[in-house]
Amino acid sequence: MKVRKISKNLIAVLLSFVLVIFLLDTVTVRTNAITHRELEDLTIEIPDGSRYTVKTIHYSYSNNRYVSLRDMAFALKGTAKHFGLSVGSTEINIKTGSGYESAGGENTGFAEGEYTTEGIKINPITIDDRKCRYYTFLGNNTEGVRDAFISITDLAMILDSDLKIDPESGIIKMSDGDFYIDMQEYEAQGLYYEVYSAIVGDATTGTVYSAYNENASVSAASTTKLMTYLCIMDAVSDGEVSLDDNVTISGNAAAISQTSDGVIKMNEGQSALLSDMMYAILLPSSNEAALAVAEHIDGSEEEFVKRMNLKARELNLSEATFFYNCHGLPEYSDTVAASKIQNRISAYDMFVLSGHILNKYPEIKEITTTQKYKLDAFGVEVENTNPLLYNLPGVVGLKTGTTNAAGASLVSAYDFDDGSSVHTIVAVEYGAEDATVRNTVSEILIRYGIQCMEDVPQKGKEEEAGFPLSYEDLLKRIVLNKSRRR
Amino acid sequence: MKRLKTKLAISITATMLLLVLCALLVYERFFPLPKAPVGIWVYSEDASKSAGSLFGEWMGGRDLSDALEPVYVNVILRVGNDGTFDRSVDKESYENARNTLYENCALLLKEGISAHLEELGMANEGPITDEEAEELINETVSTDSVAYLQKALPDLVPTYEEYVKKYGNKGTYTVDKNMIAFGSSEAVKFLFDKDDLLLGEILYRRYEKKDEGGTK
After folding, report:
1. In a shared domain, residues A129 and A142
2. What are phi and psi of A296, to 5 degrees?
3. B109, B112, B140 ranked by CB distance to A481: nearest
4. Which positions in chain B touch A470 (Cβ < 8 Å)?
5. Among A121, A252, A278, B23, whose CB has the most other CB atoms within 10 angstroms?
6. From A355, A469, A474, residue closest to B121, measured CB to CB
7. Do B1 and B93 sit in the same domain of this protein?
């Protein structure tokens, strides 16, 4: 009897134990933990020659380095790029130029061959009192202190620091200089292999600084909505519609909003101001809002799309550009062998289109620099999906785009004041594998554009540049003059 | 008798004259004497096509060969009945043609600038006017559009000297049936009437001196 009782109790204990373990596993799954096995005890050498160990995770691929923020903060103490850091349970706070207080466990190697963190995501990160959107991992170091891991490239840009990995020794070498892009070197190292096509240049004058596969026709995805915006604003300018119009949500628009492609829930018959719908289209990329406005202007999406394609021809965009709808969602062709079709554009055409919009309707920046906007008509507050708006002061837009075919895409813009006029740098990137790549490559491109603008001859130096003998040179100089008048 | 002899002599003389005349006419009919296009003739060469083509190239490979209105440089050919000729290029028509071509190209240039600014979206107050484009050019290069083109594209029109080298010539000519050779140049077929002279493939018009002189 006693034995039976003891056995029963033992079985109960064992079962409880198994249940607890199972529950713990479930909780672990729910918090999306990742166990990293490709780890590196990277060495950083600061300008005075001192070396420190930096725990580094190779995320998904070798050399896709995410470095420990605490290790970097401690290593950079006393250098020109020192920064203060606090890492909470879910939040990260960086203060460039501030001191760092050690919390323990810095600059020691990984204790074991594997290291577990929470999944990669945009954890709340504040940099110099600015809420940013960088992808990071959160975890605890060997002493149980909360730590965060960030892409080494992103960190170099945040700190404006010239960090380079020496190919022979594998050591991160930090110079006294600022973050600098040698585009030839970057291209040789494969910057553009992470995307399908890209371009960066001065959209005000049309000058291109760097481009890759820029004429290839790619899926436009939601970057389509920039053409949609242009056509809407042209209709407003021509007096066809007014920004004060009430746009009524049709059955078609309401239907989209109820699907997985819906962004803002809308009901048939609801209405909102056209001016508010512009925010809905450009900030959270509302497909239903784009459709509703298209129907408001031209009666049907089909007629509005004709307008979009006509505009593309007027702007001399290439044959790489063609629109099937006003929002950029994929759809199936109405044929026997139905095929998935998507709006098409090239990176160069998007660069031209963006420049045209920014020059003709600079007020777009009021919308695209807004981080949050209340749409009272639908009882929601929408957020801007452009990560660079949060990460890089001076960014003024413009639009993200994501579909399976398009990858993660971004059209970003940055206002550069050359002392006599403002030029807008536009970077277009299509086809990144994921958002982390999209964000990093786009920020590199914008920073490269800024670098190039800082090297552009100013007005006095234009005279030194000589008399413009070619039509191209004449046009460039005239555009510069015209931009100064605005 | 004497009267009869006189009458006979006159008849014979008249008959002989008639016979000679007939012979001459017959000879002329079958063996005509060569005729030269004696007089002053003008060939008007349209300089706009080559200028348009060159300008189009400069503007980025556009086809502008037919975009400019025809503008003519006159070549004057004087054919004397003494076997001499003189061919020259009318300087006044050359200067007019050159100036007109630069002015017309300047108009196209300003249209191109307007179109470019519109494409960039810099024309939100309305299309860029001719005056504004002119102002922009002036601000940029400190000269007007015509002067700018004359500096940037000096070879838009061949020089007067190049025209003279091509057409200028004088000396003697020879005519052999329907072929004419001027100086040492190769003989060409010619055909003419009171108004037109076709020399090879070039059409000259008879020069009509107007009150103030000159043709088109």
Report:
1. yes
2. -65, -40
3. B140
4. 58, 152
5. A278
6. A355
7. no
Please judge whether A468 and B141 are an interchain contact, meaning their C-beta atoms are less than 8 angstroms apart.
Answer: yes
* Domain-terminating residue out of A128, A160, A180: A180
Contact: B141, A467; criterion CB under 8 Å: yes
Identify whether A300 is a catalytic site residue.
no
Burial class (CB in 10 A: 0-12, 13-18, 19+), A19: exposed
Count of the separate structural domains present in chain B: 2
Our answer to whether residue A121 is catalytic in this structure is no
| CA atoms of A416 and A413, how far apart (whole Å) | 10
B140 and A483: CB-CB below 8 Å? Answer: no
For residue B25, give its domain range.
1-33
The ipTM (two decimal places) reads: 0.78
Would you call A359 and B121 a contact, using CB atoms and an 8 Å cutoff? yes
H-type alpha helices, A299-434: 301-314, 347-360, 364-368, 387-391
Of residues A356, A469, A474, nearest to B120 (C-beta): A356
| Residues in chain A closer than 8 A to B55 (CB atoms) | none
Bridge pairing between strands A395-403 and A331-332: unpaired
Residues A376, A244 share a domain = yes
How is residue A187 written in tokens?
């291209």
The answer to whether the predicted template modeling score (pTM) of the entire model surpasses 0.80 is no
State how far the Cα of B156 lies from the Cα of B153, in Å rounded to an integer. 6
Give SS3 for A319.
Answer: coil
Structural domain containing residue A385: 192-455
Amino acid at A239: G
Q: Which residue has tokens 């493939």?
A: B201
Residues A123 and A202 in one domain: no
Residue contacts between A and B (CB atoms, under 8 Å): 67
Out of B113, B151, B152, name the one closest to residue A478 (CB): B113
Between CA A412 and CA A439 the distance in angstroms is: 10
Question: Which residues in chain A are contacts of B116 at CB distance < 8 A?
Answer: 475, 479
Print pLDDT tens along chain A (486 aa). Answer: 677 777 777 777 777 766 665 555 444 444 578 888 889 999 999 999 999 999 999 998 888 899 999 999 999 998 999 999 999 988 999 999 999 999 989 999 998 888 888 889 999 999 999 999 999 999 988 788 999 999 999 999 999 999 888 888 889 999 888 999 999 988 888 888 889 999 999 998 888 999 999 999 999 999 999 999 999 999 999 999 999 999 999 999 999 999 999 999 999 999 999 999 999 999 999 999 999 999 999 999 999 999 999 999 999 999 999 999 999 998 887 777 777 789 999 999 999 999 999 999 999 999 999 999 999 999 999 999 999 999 999 999 999 998 877 789 999 999 999 888 889 999 999 999 899 999 999 999 999 999 999 876 554 445 545 788 999 889 988 888 887 765
The domain boundary, picked from A155, A180, A205, lies at: A180
Alpha-carbon distance of A264 to A270, in angstroms, equals 12
Q: Which DSSP symbol is given to B7?
A: H
Yes or no, beta carbons of A468 and B140 under 8 Å apart: yes
**Set of chain B residues whose Cβ sits within 8 Å of the Cβ of A467:** 141, 151-152
B18 with B116, same domain: the answer is no
Same domain, A149 and A229: no
Question: Residues A151, A219, A222, A286: which is the catalytic one?
Answer: A222
- B15: helix, coil or strand? helix
Residue A11 lies inside a defined structural domain of this protein: no
Q: Give the distance from residue B142's alpha carbon to the nearest chain A alpha carbon, in angstroms.
A: 10
DSSP bridge pairs for A412 = A398, A427
**Which secondary-structure segment (H or E) carries A98?**
none
Known catalytic residue: A222?
yes
Q: Are residues B24 and B92 in the same domain?
A: no
